[in-house]
Design brief:
The protein folds into 2 domains: about 55 residues, DNA polymerase, domain 1; about 290 residues, TIM Barrel, CATH 3.20.20. It is α/β, with parallel strands linked by helices. The longest helix is centred in the middle third of the chain and has 18 residues. α1 crosses α2 and α6 packs parallel to α9. The protein starts with 12 loop residues before the first helix and ends in a 23-residue tail after the last strand.
Length: about 350
C-alpha cells in the first residue's frame, strides 16, 4: 500500500544533508542514510540501527521508504541466438509507470533505464513521445530500476550482475540531468554493494546542447550517444521537430567537437534508417560530412515497427550500401541489431499508454 508520506528515496544526497541540518544532526548522517537506502536496501527506518531510536522514530513520522513495484514482466526470444531480452513495467509510488529493459549478450548484461515518465519531445518515430510528458524521475527512481533488473539477474544465477547501463529508455536524459548524474554517482560509488564503472555507462540524447556542454565539464567518465537520424536540418526537423529546432545541426556539430576535444572520448552517432526518408546516398554523404568534424563512431539501427506510426525499415541491400559509403569515407560504422522487438522493448518502442496514470 502506498504511503501518504513523501518517499525519502526521492531526496538527493544534498537534500538529505539539508534535512540533517534541520534536525540538528551532523552532515555525515546523510551519507549513512543514503548508504542504508541504496546499498543496504533498508525497508524501514528500524533497519538503520546506526541512528538513534529517537531519530529513527522522527524520520518514520515524516517519510516513507518505498520501492517501485513490478506489475508486468515480459520475456522475448531473439532470432538466431540463445539470449532473452526482458522488459519490466514498474509502478512508481505515485501510480505512474515506466518501463526498463534487460538486454543480454555473450559478453555483457545491459540495463536500459528510463529517466522520465513519457517524453516532451514527440519525435515522430518514437512510441514514448506519443505518451506525452508526465514528470521527471527522481535519482532514486532511476537507481531503483538498475537494482530491480540486477535482482532479476541474481535470482537466475548467483554472483551474476549487470555489466553495463544505458540511459536509452523512456524520456530524454539530458532534460533531467541533475537526477541522471546523481543516479550515476550512486551506482558508481565504491562504497556501495552494487558498483559499476562510469565507463560502462552510456547517456543517450537527442542533442540537448547546453547539457552536453555541461557533461563535457562535469568530470564524468560516461559515454555519450547522440540520436541524429538525419544530417539534413529540414529532414531532421520533420522527424524530430522539437529537438531539431531547439538544437540545430550546425550548433550541435560544434558542441560535439568541443565535447570530444575536452573529454578525449568519441561520441556514438545513432542513426535510424527509415525507408525512403533518410536512407539515400545523399543522406550518407551528409552524415559523413557532419561526422568528420569530431571523434565519433556511427551506429546504424533499424526502425522497429510501432502501432499507428507509419514508417518502414530499409532493405538489407540499402543498409549495406549506406554503411559501405561511410566506411569508404573513413568512418567507423556498425550495424546494431535490435533486441526485444517481440515484446516492444527495442529502440523507440517503450510506452505505457494503457497504464498511464490519469491526469
Amino acid at each position: 500500500m502506498t504511503s501518504s508520506l513523501p518517499n525519502i528515496k526521492d531526496l538527493t544526497l544534498k537534500e538529505l544533508q539539508q534535512l540533517m541540518t534541520s534536525h540538528g544532526e551532523p552532515l555525515f548522517r546523510a551519507t549513512q542514510i543514503h548508504q542504508w537506502l541504496f546499498s543496504h536496501h533498508a525497508e524501514s527506518f528500524d533497519d538503520m540501527t546506526i541512528l538513534s531510536l529517537a531519530f529513527r522514530r522522527k524520520l518514520s513520522e515524516t517519510f516513507s521508504i518505498e520501492r517501485p513495484e513490478i506489475v508486468e514482466h515480459l520475456t522475448g526470444i531473439e532470432e538466431a541466438c540463445d539470449y532473452q531480452t526482458e522488459k519490466i513495467l514498474l509502478k512508481l509510488p505515485d501510480g505512474n509507470m515506466v518501463e526498463s529493459v534487460l538486454i543480454p549478450s555473450a559478453e555483457r548484461l545491459t540495463a536500459c533505464v528510463s529517466t522520465q515518465v513519457g517524453c516532451p519531445l514527440n519525435c515522430h518515430f518514437c512510441a514514448t513521445g506519443k505518451m506525452g510528458f508526465q514528470r521527471n524521475l527522481s535519482a532514486g527512481e532511476i537507481t531503483e530500476q538498475v537494482y530491480t533488473l540486477n535482482n532479476l539477474v541474481a535470482a537466475k544465477e548467483s554472483g551474476k550482475a549487470i555489466t553495463n547501463i544505458v540511459f536509452m529508455g523512456m524520456g530524454e536524459p539530458l532534460l533531467n540531468t541533475d537526477n541522471v548524474i546523481e543516479a550515476i554517482e550512486t551506482f558508481s560509488s565504491r562504497n556501495y554493494r552494487f558498483c559499476l564503472s562510469q565507463k560502462r555507462v552510456t547517456i543517450s540524447t537527442v542533442g540537448v546542447i547546453p547539457e552536453i556542454q555541461r557533461l563535457g565539464k562535469s568530470g564524468l567518465k560516461t559515454k555519450l550517444a547522440v540520436s541524429l537520424h538525419s544530417a539534413n536540418q529540414e529532414k531532421r526537423e520533420l522527424l524530430m521537430p522539437i529537438a531539431a529546432r531547439q538544437y540545430p545541426l550546425q550548433e550541435l556539430g560544434k558542441t560535439l567537437a568541443e565535447y570530444t576535444a575536452s573529454t578525449g572520448s568519441p561520441v556514438t552517432i545513432v542513426y535510424m534508417l527509415l525507408k525512403g526518408i533518410n536512407d539515400s546516398l545523399d543522406d550518407a554523404k551528409m552524415l559523413a560530412r557532419f561526422s568528420r568534424s569530431f571523434l565519433c563512431k556511427i551506429n546504424l539501427i533499424d526502425y522497429n515497427s510501432i502501432i499507428n506510426i507509419k514508417f518502414m525499415p530499409v532493405f538489407s541491400s540499402t543498409k549495406e550500401l549506406f554503411q559501405q559509403y561511410l566506411v569508404n569515407a573513413g568512418l567507423h560504422v556498425t550495424i546494431r541489431k535490435s533486441f526485444g522487438t517481440t515484446i516492444n522493448a527495442a529502440c523507440g518502442q517503450l510506452a505505457t499508454t494503457r497504464y498511464t496514470k490519469p491526469q
